[in-house]
Amino acid sequence: MSRAAPPSVGARAGAGDADPAALLCPSAAAEPGRSVVFGVAGAAPRAGETPGDSGRTVAYLTKTVPVPEDVAALTAPVAPNAVLRTAAPCAGSGCRHFSGHSCTLIERIAVALDPVVDHPPACAIRGTCRWWAEQGRVACVRCPQIVTDREAPSEAYALAMAPPERMTA
Predict the structure, then answer these.
(1) What DSSP string describes 120-147?
(2) Which of 51, 52, 95, 129 is most exposed by smallest CB count within 10 Å?
(3) 41: which strand partners?
(4) Which segments of the chain are extended strands (E)?
(5) What is the DSSP secondary structure assignment for residue 69, as one 8-state letter?
(6) Is the pLDDT of residue 167 over 60?
(7) What order do you get walking across the sheet with 57-66 strand by strand?
(8) Mean pLDDT over all residues of the chain?
């Protein structure tokens, strides 16, 4: 598997024009009443998968599950987003990763991280996923290595996840 071309190559036409709330952010916080679980991190890589820098991949659920009220107790002693992949409506301009028309997080991931699977895995949110809408396959072949709250990430992973600097007036 090779590193992808810059995000403009994988970008899908019109994704930035969509109402942000109509798409789901696949890197949202696990918030009861707002987000849904679509994957569980920590699964051993399957045949044909290359683990991300953590050695873990995400096992995707066939259907989303609402984040329960007691999510922190259920995942203790670790934070919910250290083991769960959760999605919520894109916050658009309310998110530090949103540029006004696109998600800069998936743009950085597409450049900084290598694919970890050859084909996009089955995913319950693909049809409404912002990353899929913007980057398509480029996003999906990197997604299994993404864990929102990761301990000791590699330098490349940490750089990809770091929000862009905001210009101040």
Answers:
(1) PPP-TTGGGBHHHHHHTHHHHTTGGG--
(2) 51
(3) 58
(4) 24-25, 36-43, 57-66, 84-89
(5) T
(6) no
(7) 24-25, 84-89, 36-43, 57-66
(8) 83
